[in-house]
Structure formats: C-alpha cells, structure tokens
Amino acid sequence: MGLVGLLTSSALAGEKPNIIFIFADDMGVGDVSHTTGRAPTPHLDRLAKEGMQFTDAHTTSSVCTPSRYGLLTGRYNWRTRLQKWVFSKPECQPLIKEGESTVASLLKSQGYDTAIVGKWHLGIGWHIIDGSKPKKGQTGPGWNIDYIKPAVTPTSNGFDYFYGIAASLDMPPYVYIHNNKAIQVPSVSKGVPSIKGGIARVGAAASDFEANECLKVFAQKSVEYINEQKNSERPFFLYLPLTSPHTPIVPSKEWLGKSPIGKYGDFLMETDWVVGEVLKALDDNQLAANTLIIFSTDNGCSPAANIKALQKKGHFPSGELRGHKADIYEGGHRVPTIARWPKVIKPGTKTDRLTTLADFYATCAEITGVKMAPKAGVDSVSFLPSLKNPKLVDRSAIVMHSATGSFAIRQGDWKLCFCGGSAGWSKPAQAPPGAPKWQLYNLKDDLAETKNLYDEHPERVKELHSLMLEYITNGRSTPGPKQANDVKGVSLGKEKRKKSKTKK
Asked: Quick check: 12 pLDDT over 90?
C-alpha cells in the first residue's frame, strides 16, 4: 500500500495555504537583529513584526543532517542508523528510507505542488563506479560517481522539483543538481576557503561552481518557482534550506563589508536578503495573505564563526544561552523561529510553546486535514493551535541530541542531559572529575545552565529518565501504536569519566 493509501483526509473548511519553510544553516538565537544581533536583518525583523516568534523552539539535533531528518519526517533522528555526527561523504546513502513519509509526500498527497531549492544533506543515492580511480589532477572525493545516471534525490521523497546541492557548501562534489541529475559533470578539483587560511576540502567540482554565488542562485530559483505558482489552482510547498551562514563564510561581492562585525555579519545580511526576495515574490504575486512562511535554522551558531571575536564586537550569536552548534546545551539546538500567516497569525505576537521542529510534520497534517498514518510523524505534535492562539502551549516534552550522540529531555522548565558535559565542542565535553554523570537544569530559573541540580532533585531525574526510556522503547513519543526504531538497542550511553589526579 502506498503513502496515499495510508492517509485518510478530512477536509478542512477554507482554502489550503501555501507553505514555505526557510531553513538557515548554523545560526543562533542572537544572530537576528530583532533580538540582540549587530548585523541588520530587516526582512527577518519584518517577519517577526508581521508574524509570531517562537521563544522556545528547538532542532532535534545540534548538527545538520539529523536535524533536517527530524524536520521533514516528524521523527527523531536518533531512531535512524545515524546515531551521531553528520553525513560527510558523497557515498552516504539516503537517510530517509524508501517509502518513508515526509512533509513533502504528505502535502503532495493533498494536492500540493512540492519543491526544494537549496541544500539537501540527507544523502544522495549516487551511482558509484566500482574500482574507479582518480585521474591526474582529480583531487579529493567525488570522482567515482557516474553523474550521467539519475540519482536518488529529494524527488524520491515527495518533492516534485529539486534544484540545489547534495550537502554543505564545504563538502564535495560541488555541483548543482536538477531533480535527479547533476546539471554539469565535474571537470575540475576545487576547494573552499579554510577557516585557518588557504583552501580546504578539495574535491570534484563543476567548472563554473562558485561557493559565494549559491545564495543568489537559490534566491533566483525560489522566486522563479513562486512566480510560476501565481496562476496555479494547486497550493504549493517550498522548502528552502540555505547554505549560510555555515562555513565557508563566503558572502558574495555585493555583501562584503556591509556589516559592522565582519564577514560573518555580511553572510547573515545576505541570508536575510534571500528571505526578503521570497517575501517580495509573495507580495508581487499577491500570495502573501494565505501563505504560511516559517523561518528557522538547523542548529545553533558554529564556533567556526569565531564567536569570541564576534562577542568582542558586541554580537552574541547564542544570546544568553550556554554553548553552540554540536552541544547538548541550549545554544546548540534552541534556534530563532518565526512564522507568518496573515489569515491566521496575529502580527507581533510571541509564543512560549515548547516546540521541536519535528512538530512541523503534524502541523502540516492538521492544516490540510490529514489523519497521520500510525508510522508517520511519531514524534510530531501540531503547533497550529498556538499559531491561532499563542497562549496555547500544550506541548509536553521534547528530546534533543548532541553531535556525539548524547540525549537531553525537556519537560516544562526541567531539562535532563544524559551526559556530564557539552557532549559536543564546548568545554568540558565530558563530566569533570567528581561531577555528577548527568546534568539537571531548571531553565526558568537558570536559562544559562550554570547550576547542575542533579544531586538535589533525584525524583525529577528518575521521572525524566523513565520518560526518556519510554520514548525509546515505544518507538514514538506521541500517542499511538508502538513502533520500531531503525536500529536495535538505542542507548543513552555511558558517560566516560576522566580520572581524578588527586592521590588518595
């Protein structure tokens, strides 16, 4: 039975809205100027003024590939074979399984035209040429791919149209993909500017591929797509995952020197410009009134942005949060999230609803009147009620995951981290000698996660630990029939403790 057969529809009154989700890359809560950011982001400020800010929204993971999986499937990434880190090689096969429901396939079943423009990073099913060896001048990965043959791309996951790149802007091959085929066969070896100077991550590239042109290309293709939908009788879904401000930090020539905080700020401003181009296209085509547009990001700011230098200039990418990308701390996964839908959302509002971006799946289902299949969106709870009334904060608990595979569970004001450190890139990564193996914080009183209450509230630790085990065992965190995780024995892991040097 196909996906459509697994879904039953109960039509909602009124016209179905267009839906756009813009997903920035490595951007913290303090990177927008309507919070504390020093780089002007007028178009995101406009979205916040005309829509709703989510003050407590989180990615499912503090790194890229897994958080994108959670967004599109409504299922926690740690239920998959990817238990830590991200896809970094072109040979990595698709993380979304064949026939697995996505937001795109759900909306497509309800009559939507579906498109993605930008960065995929969930695995491309390239045809690998066995035994292929690089020829002279062919440096780095990506030369063993048969680019002539069709690949498994987003068009296998419910998207009618794809124009973009396979992974991050610093991961070869550097080539644009249209639907399921590379636009140009790579013919040169290229790399990207390294954080420490020089060129890094050299690999197969199309001769005309330039990293600092990607945002302009994505903006152009997105506007073209929106223009094409003006006279369509079908609603559309556009997923726009950007490559910025992730490394390489390469703003185009037009944006160099525009911000007061350097290239990172310039890249933030160009990211904001893409948002502005989308808003202008909606206005020009008179589509804004019934379009739900959401902006968010796949995890917090990366230390590759040189956070200390930015802070000296008065720019705090993580705001008052602890940590950054890769960490289990709030700076790793609490992200700026804004929604605008003039027909539904009251302008200038905020919601404190505890939200995981995995909730996007169930939200789209409720908007379109779809009853989700038992295996679909198993960790997703619709935030449509909160869009209508920001005071409705009915979400119970959510789970977050660090780059190294450590868990945290949040319920109400309480957060339990199943590790003793950041479990990412912040120090200490592991529990210091003599410290508790886990961390418990009350975020209402201690948003910066400075006081570990693990020893003071054993009953709270026990309660949250039990809930986490229940979510793992049931294969879901929402009501419904028990499901299987893709791997057996999903574990909270054992904390590796550093031995104390203190002599007995």
From this structure: no
Pick the CATH number of 16-388 from 1.20.272.10, 2.60.40.10, 3.40.50.150, 3.40.720.10: 3.40.720.10
Residue 305 contacts residue 317 (beta carbons within 8 Å) = yes
Cβ neighbours of residue 296 under 8 Å, at least 6 residues apart?
21, 22, 23, 24, 57, 59, 335, 336, 337, 338, 357
How far is 424 from 85, CA to CA, in rounded Å? 10
Give the model's pLDDT for residue 7. 39
The pLDDT value given to residue 109: 97
CA–CA gap between residue 207 and residue 235 (Å, rounded): 37
**The pLDDT value given to residue 112:** 98
Q: Is 266 helix (H, G, I), strand (E, B) or coil?
A: helix
Helix (H) or strand (E) holding 72: helix 64-73
Whether 399-474 and 16-388 are alike in CATH topology: the answer is: no
Distances (CA, A) of 449 to 51, 323, 331, 414: 29, 10, 10, 11
Class of the CATH domain delimited by 399-474: alpha beta
Does 261 score more than 80 pLDDT?
yes
DSSP 224-260: HHHHHTTT-SS-EEEEEE---SSSS----GGGTT-ST
Q: Where are the beta strands (DSSP E) in 142-219?
A: 161-165, 177-178, 181-182, 188-193, 199-205
- Residues with Cβ within 8 Å of 486's Cβ and at least 6 positions away in sequence, in order, are 79, 80, 81, 97
Peptide bond into 173 cis (omega under 30): yes
Count of all residues that appear for the chain in the document: 504
> Between the CA of residue 206 and those of 64, 174, 211, what are the distances in Å?
24, 6, 11
Q: Which two tokens stand for residue 503?
A: 């002599």
Report domain extents, the chain: 16-388, 399-474
